[in-house]
Amino acid sequence: MKKLFITTLALLLFSTLVSATEIVYQPINPSFGGNPMNGNFLLQKAQNQNAHTAPNEGRSFVDRFRDALERNIINSLTRRIADGEIVEGLYDTGEYTVEVIGQPDGSVLVYITHNETGEQTVITMPAI
């Protein structure tokens, strides 16, 4: 009986010293509510693990330069037409032929022809 009393007393005394709390989940990734200071670290880790590399198209400098020049010509032409500076004429950009025709009512017709396939697109811009 004395052993039971001592054991019960010991359990009661030690049980008051032990306390427990809820287990709370704290996310690490800032996208899911974690600490924003972890963002750069996690991004760097992911980039280091990424083994994917972009495919090399193998295009030469001349091809890239020709494409850039073609885009610049088309952008310049588009900007001038949109600004109302009608520049009538025929423009050959290499892959496309662009023909700009001003109409008497102030509208602009733009014919875009793909040189390889012959596919033609007609854009009519009404007078502003």
- Tally of extended strands? 4
| Gyration radius, in Å | 36 Å
Q: Kindly state the percentage of residues in helix.
A: 25-40%
First and last CA, distance: 106 Å
Task: Extract low-pLDDT stretches.
Answer: none
Derived from helix and strand composition plus strand pairing, the structural class reads alpha+beta
Mean pLDDT: 82
Q: List the total number of helices.
A: 3
Set out the fold topology.
Layout: H1 2-17, H2 39-49, H3 61-82, E1 89-92, E2 96-102, E3 108-114, E4 120-125
Antiparallel strand pairs: 1-2, 2-3, 3-4
What would you say this structure looks like, in words?
- Helices cover 38% and strands 19% of the residues.
- The radius of gyration is 36 Å and the shape is elongated.
- The protein has a four-stranded antiparallel β-sheet with strand order 1-2-3-4, with no helix packed on it.
- It has a domain at 61-125.
- It has 128 residues and is an alpha+beta fold.
- It contains three helices and four strands.
- A hairpin with a 5-residue loop joins β3 (108-114) and β4 (120-125).
Short structural description:
The chain has three helices and four strands. With 128 residues, the chain is an alpha+beta fold.
Which features would summarize this protein structure in a list?
128 residues, alpha+beta, four-stranded antiparallel beta sheet, 3 helices
